[in-house]
Amino acid sequence: MAIYLDHAATTQLRPEALEAMLPYLGGAFGNPSSAHSFGRAARNALDEAHERLATALGGTAREIVVTSGGTEANNLAIKGAAWAGKARGHRLVASAVEHHAVGHTMRHLEKFGFEVVEVPVDRNGRVDPDELDAALDDRTTLVSVMLANNEVGTVQPIREIADRLRARRGILFHVDAVQAAPTLDLDVGELGADLVTISAHKFEGPKGVGALWVRRGTQLLAQVHGGSQERHRRAGTENVAGAVGMAVAYECACADRPTTAIRLRALRSRLAAACLAVEGVELTGHPTLRLPGLLSLLVRSADGVAISVALDLDGIAASTGSACSTGSPEPSHVLTAMGYTDAEALGALRLSLGRATTDAEVSEACLVVPRVIAAIRDGSVAQAADPLGVRLGA
Ligand SMILES: Cc1ncc(COP(=O)(O)O)c(C=O)c1O
């Protein structure tokens, strides 16, 4: 049985979520907008999902917009806030290590006259709040900084940034918490943001469903038009089963978090020690302020894709840090923003553990991963192209 060490890409649906979803994939198939009994049953389930998710996040049901995932929630946050604030200003600010669902969305807005400013990060992938301050002016309407990075796991000083933004007034703060949600404590009130994105498939919920938490009173223009669903903020017949599964999975994740985080941190340390013992391997991202289960490595003079392919053949599913699915190697924008050269960045390897990862799996990985890395580095295993298409950007 293969060992899955790619939980940052996606996770397996947990049984509690599947069980909660099944009725809405079966007999309880009503449209929540219908007034009859089928519709009312679906509406009740959807309302309850909003309520439960909001409570677990520290918000209220009215503040939750259920979307088709993290990508759509980020698009809604950025485009919705940018257009709503256009009369006041057109400067948008984001860190240089955001997921493409944020970075590319902002770049798209440049075509419509918005000015996008990228705030640099240090060698560990952290934003300096002073540098972020320096990027703001009185035409700035939105700042977006992720809570934890998907490639290197670095956690950002969100509370400090939020406090500084609040002092300036009028600038909305969006936080992409997609990678943080499974293992870091998340209370939207304490975070101090106005908009927070999560995605269900990262915390053992279903794929294709996520949510944007929108602080009460935040001006946001809908990006999908049609019906009045999601309080006019996202038109379209709702994914009832998805919303139900997401709420249950998130409640379970919150309950498990304290023990999961401690366990994952210990497992990751063990795996890190084994991998870092190989010559030419170094840790990327912050040494301590990082996601508990994410081990991001840079293997010098080696191709991360070749390592992933060799690991896959040896029964370990991992990913590179590079964002490319077309076959042409493209260094990770996260690592290059952290100061690594393009050539160095191509040696990225990401091993991400999850709640389902067992001690025995990590023990096995502690033997296999160092052996494969060493073999690739000394040339005894060919550095193939990407026959399995494992270069991932999730
Ligand atoms: C930090 C981050 N933001 C956003 C997304 C996009 O989420 P989704 O896959 O639900 O569209 C991902 C997914 O990999 C992510 O890691």
> What is the percent of helical residues?
40-55%
Tally of separate helices: 13
Distance between the termini: 23 Å
Low-confidence stretches: 385-393
Largest sheet: 7 strands, mixed
Overall structural domain count: 2
CATH classification class of the largest domain: Alpha Beta
- Looking at the structure, what is the overall shape? globular
* Percentage of residues in DSSP E strands: 5-15%
Task: Output the radius of gyration.
Answer: 21 Å
Order of helix and strand elements from N to C terminus: EHHEHEHEHEHEHEEHHEEHEHHEH
Q: Give the structural class.
A: alpha/beta
**For this structure, what is the CATH homologous superfamily of the largest domain?**
Type I PLP-dependent aspartate aminotransferase-like (Major domain)
Bound molecules: pyridoxal-5'-phosphate
Order of strands across the biggest sheet?
2-8-7-6-5-3-4
What is the fold named in CATH at topology level of the largest domain?
A: Aspartate Aminotransferase, domain 2
Structure commentary:
By secondary structure, this protein is an alpha/beta fold. The protein folds into 2 domains: 3-9 and 257-377, Aspartate Aminotransferase, domain 1; 15-252, Type I PLP-dependent aspartate aminotransferase-like (Major domain) (Aspartate Aminotransferase, domain 2). Helices cover 40% and strands 13% of the residues. The protein has 13 helices and 12 strands. The chain has helices spanning 15-25, 37-57, 70-84, 100-110, 129-135, 158-168, 188-191, 229-232, 240-276, 304-313, 333-337, 342-345, 359-377, and strands at residues 3-4, 64-67, 91-95, 115-119, 140-144, 172-176, 195-199, 210-214, 281-283, 294-299, 316-317, 348-352. The strands form 3 sheets. It has a 7-stranded mixed sheet with strand order 2-8-7-6-5-3-4, with helices on both faces. A 3-stranded antiparallel sheet has the order 9-10-12. Helix 7 (188-191) links the parallel strand 6 and strand 7. The protein starts with a strand and ends in a 17-residue tail after the last helix. The model is unreliable at 385-393 (pLDDT under 50). The structure holds pyridoxal-5'-phosphate. The site of pyridoxal-5'-phosphate (PLP) has 14 residues, from helix 3.
